[in-house]
Amino acid sequence: MAVHIEQLLGQEAESLLSHECKTIAKSRLHLPGADFIDRIFSQSNRSPQVLRSLASIYNSGRLAGTGYVSILPVDQGIEHTAGASFGPNPDYFDPENIIKLAIEGGCNAVATTFGNLAVMSRKYAHKIPFVVKINHNELMTYPNTYDQILFGSVEEAWNLGAAAIGATIYFGSEESSRQIVEIAAAFERAHELGMATILWCYTRNNDFKKGSTDYHVAADLTGQANHLGVTLQADIIKQKLPENNGGFSAIGFGKTHKSMYETLSSDNPIDLCRYQVANCYMGRIGLINSGGASSGASDLAEAVRTAVINKRAGGQGLISGRKAFQRPLAEGVEILNAIQDVYLSDTVTIA
């Protein structure tokens, strides 16, 4: 598989696969591994029931027992409208096909809506770990508003057999304070019931764009969002791959230190992602990066590139949806397996 990875990386292969991180040394990180739950979570306040739920995720699918995770997320039916999301492949209007893709694709878990998982819970809850996405940004309000609102209760997620709940917070938005309080309470309740927690730590504010540069994907902003997420006791952090840096300085808010840009990071994409990992308690809480939108023919190469950057930075996996479900099943499985092969490859090492 190493040759295949190099081919997919193209001209970036040498720079990505041979990069040595000189910002935050890998020796400072708590890296993924077969013993991750024993090494990290057994020291925490997580109950035995939560440890069992985490184990069900870490020990499922093709990456079982590695400490890495590959999750299929499908909440775009609400977030982006169902027709726009499933138009490329109408099979996924049927939630059973979402779960089948996750199983056949060798994923550790499937993350989707209350409705999707509830309608199939008795058939599949014991076959693959469920992650119930409990809040969403709906697009039916006109003019459109951008807010994450709860679509159900933590108790109902537990009732339908979920191993974990997932939630999004739009850090930087006008509604973020309410979302933080809301999701902190939801995560506390989920842990009480024995479920794990995954937080989509997204940034959102129109002023985070300056000219042609979008700082929603800046390492400093996303890193701080991650740090807020782990403080809320998320067990896994989902974040977009960083594409730039210096958001706090360009926008003119927050607190910074020159070391954030001069010694703790660089322009290299692996170093930018490592700064995100560092903000997840130096890897004590796993960072999974999102796969992003489907671009068509380049999806396979883009997915592998993201996986290589995440793994070499010290991250814990990928959560990729649209690249997989907006195409025929066999092609979706191929992309999911290619992502997993990066984490199974001995030649893709920690930078």
TrEMBL record:
It is an enzyme of class 4 (lyase). Its EC number is 4.1.2.13. GO terms for biological process: glycolytic process. CDD domains: DhnA. SUPFAM superfamilies: Aldolase. SMART domains: DeoC. GO terms for molecular function: fructose-bisphosphate aldolase activity. Belongs to the DeoC/FbaB aldolase family. FbaB subfamily. This is fructose-bisphosphate aldolase. It comes from Cesiribacter andamanensis AMV16. The lineage of its organism: Bacteria, Pseudomonadati, Bacteroidota, Cytophagia, Cytophagales.
